[in-house]
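Please check this.
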Amino acid sequence: MLNITTKTFQELTTQELYDILQLRSKVFVVEQNCVYQDIDGKDQEALHVLGFIGKKLVAYTRIFKPGDYFEKASIGRVVVEAHERKFKHGYKIMQYSIQAIKEHYNEIDIKISAQCYLNKFYNNLGFKAIGEEYLEDGIPHITMVYKA
């Protein structure tokens, strides 16, 4: 069972921060073969949504209040360990993240920058694509919005 918690940057333990950065690097840099600057100076402003199986971090997002990343509240760095994806942990952590935005920021409008190949995944969560595709770090992305 996926156990999900939300923490500020200051509440993260050193081990949790290490595990977050390791998981993000494993998926976004190695698996997706994309060289980019993951450590972007925004983690300190985010709320971190961590999904654990036992003590192992297997799913993660970071969420922002309006104005910290986009003009709307946002979710980013959505990542699930490859061997855990078949268990739908991506849906679970995203649903939790949407709810966390409602609870922590009293917001229902959310904007994300989604990798295009995940369009259906985000559609199933209630996000709708807007605008044209664009390249971000060499990967096709699309802006998507969620309105409850």
